[in-house]
Amino acid sequence: MNRVLLICFSVLLLASCQKEREKLQWDTDWTAPIAHGTLNLQNLIGDSLFTSNPDSSLLLKYEAELLKFDVSELIDLKDTTFTEVFALPFFNPVDFSPNQSFINQPENNQLLIEGAELTSVGLKNGTISYTLESTIQGNVIYTYQIPSATDANGNIFSKEVYVSAASANARSFKSGSFSLAGYTLDMTGPNGDETNRISTNINVKVNPNNSGPVSVSNQDTIFIKNTMGAISIQNAQGYFGMHSINSGVSSSALNLFDKLISGGFDIQNLSIDFKIENGIGVDAVVSIAQLFGKTTTSQINLNHSVIGVANSIDRALKIGGTISSSEFVVQMNQSNSNIIVLVEMMPDSLGYEIDVIVNPLANISGYGDFIDADFPLRVLLDATMPFGFIANELTLLDTINLNINDTLGLNSLALNLEINNGYPLAARIDISILDVNDMVVGHLVSPGEILAGEVDPTTQKVSHATLSYNTLTITSKDLITLKKNKKLLLKLVFDSPDSYSQLPIYDYYKIDYSIKGTANVGLEL
Do 408 and 476 share a structural domain? Predict the structure, then answer.
C-alpha cells in the first residue's frame, strides 16, 4: 500500500513540473460491501402473523374481523331540542333584588330515541348547545341543570351563563355550548318508572353584581333553546328492541397474502374457526347467508354446514362492572368444507353477507339489556395453519436500500451476492431497480439458483444452510438510476420439486445475504 502511495506521489511531482500537459486518466477496480441482512418468512410475510409451537415449528395465525355490531347499530339517539319561552306572569312590574331568582322551572324531557327504551346512558361525547334571548333590563344569570346527569364523581350537570342587560330597544343575546362527555344520564324520569327521559331544571336570577333591583313584568320575555347533540354513547342499559339487521354483501380486506405476489402453495393441514363473540347484553340469532374469498380475477364460495343456518347466540353477562362475552364457535377444516381450496387461492378480501336478529324473544330481560362501546358483537375468522408448505412459484419480496456513495465516478458496477439459505426449499432470485416512487425502472437478471438447505433425513430438519453465489452485472443505464435512488426490489421465488414432501418450517430458519459491489472507477489528474 505504501508503494502505491509513493508511485502516485512521484507521478504528481513530475506532472507539476510541466507547464503544459495532457490530463492523466486511468481506471481501477474496487470491491466493497454495500448491503447485507437476514430474511425469514416472519419478516417477509409479517412477524405478527406467526407463533411457534413448543418444538419451534411455525404456526401461521390470522384473525379477520368480518363484522362488528356496536352501539350505533342498536341505539339511535338523535339530536333533541328543548325550547322554553317564559312570558313572566307579573301584570304589574315587580322588582327582584340581586341574587334573587324569578324563574325556577323543572322539566321532564323526552329524548328522541328510535327502537330502544333506555333507562341509563353513559356518554363518551355530547354537547348542550344553548341560545338565550332576553328583554330583561338587568344583568341575569341563567343556570341550566340536568339533575339526572352525573359525572364520575357523582356531581350533577350544572352550568351558568351570564347574560347582559337588554335595552329598551334591543334584546340581549347569548349562545354557546357545554360538553356532556363523561356524564351518565338516568333516563327513568322523576319517579324512576319511565324510559328515554331526562329531568332538567332552568333557573334565572338577578346577577349578584347588578347595581340594583331589576324590574320585570308580563311585558318581558325570556327565550331559551337547548339542543342535546353530537352524542356518542359509551354504554347504555334498558330494552334495545327487536331488530333485524342485514350486512348486505360486504367485504373485509385480507392482508395475509400481501407479499405473496404470485404463485401459490398447497396446504395439507388447516383449521379455521368461525367465531361470534357477543359482548352485548342481548340475545341474538346470527346466520351467514354467504362467505367467499375473492381476488381481482376469481371468487370461491365457502361450502360448510354453517352457511344459511340460524344460530342462537347467548347474551353477554355483566357482574358488577365486569362484562364476559359469550362465544359461538364453528370449526372449518378440510374434512367438512372447501376451506383449503379457498385459502390456496390467496384471496385479497373475504366477502360475506350476515343476518343478525337482536332480542328475538322481545323484552325477556325486563329492561336489563346492556351495551358498552368496548364490547361489541363481532363476527371473526380465526385461522391456524402449521407453516409447512409445498410451493408452486411462490414469490416473496422485500426492498433493499443500498449504501452507494459515488464520489469518484463509477464506470460500471457488478453486484456479487452471497446467499446462505437455511430453508429446505431452493429458490430463484430476481432483482429490480426502483425509482423514488417505488416503481420498477430496471431489471437485473440472476443466472443462478439459490440452493436449498441440507435436510437431515432422520429429523426432517435443515442441518446445514447452503451457500450460493450470484453475480449481477448492471448496465450503464441502470447504474445511473441505481446511483440516484439506491433501492432494489428483491424477489425470492420458491418452487418445490415434484418429489418434495411437505416439511415443517421452524422459527429459526433464515436466509442470510451479503451484497458486495465490484466497481470500475475512473480517476483523472
Answer: yes
Same domain, 419 and 355: no
pLDDT of residue 73: 82
Residues 122 and 177 grouped into a single domain: yes
Last residue of a domain, one of 210, 239, 268: 239
Please, which pLDDT band fits residue 24 given cuts at 50, 70 and 90?
very low
CA 1 – CA 157 distance, rounded (Å): 85
User: To 10 degrees, the CA torsion angle through 275, 279, 282, 284?
Assistant: -10
**For 432-465, what is each residue's pLDDT tens digit?**
888 878 888 877 766 678 888 999 989 889 999 9
Contact between 503 and 388 under an 8 Å Cβ cutoff? The reply is yes
Q: Is residue 14 part of a domain?
A: no
Q: Does residue 330 share a domain with residue 312?
A: yes
pLDDT digits 0-9 by tens, 54-73: 888 878 787 888 888 888 88
Distance from the Cα of residue 58 to its chain's centroid:
26
User: Which residue bears the cell 374434512?
Assistant: 335
Cα separation, 424 vs 509, whole angstroms = 9
Please report whether residue 515 resides in a domain. yes
Residue that terminates a domain, selected from 239, 265, 294: 239
Beta strand segments in 240-393, E: 243-246, 250-253, 264-266, 271-278, 284-294, 299-301, 311-313, 317-319, 322-324, 326-333, 349-358, 369-372, 377-386, 390-392
Q: What is the number of domains present in the chain? A: 3
* Residue 11 domain-assigned (yes or no): no
256: pLDDT strictly greater than 80: no
Q: What is the pLDDT of residues 205-232, one digit of tens each?
A: 999 999 899 998 888 889 999 999 999 9
| pLDDT score of 17 more than 60 | no
Alpha helical stretches, state H, 357-490: 476-485
| pLDDT confidence of residue 97 | 94
Contacts of 237 (CB under 8 A, 6+ apart): 118, 119, 120, 121, 281, 367, 368, 369, 370, 371
Task: Quote the domain boundaries for residue 159.
Answer: 76-239
CATH number for the domain that contains residue 433 = 2.60.120
pLDDT, mean of residues 74-91? 85
Residue type at 173 in one-letter notation: F
Residue with cell 334571548: 133
Structure-block grid coordinates of residue 373 = 362501546
The CA-CA-CA angle for residues 80, 376, 288, to 5°, reads 115
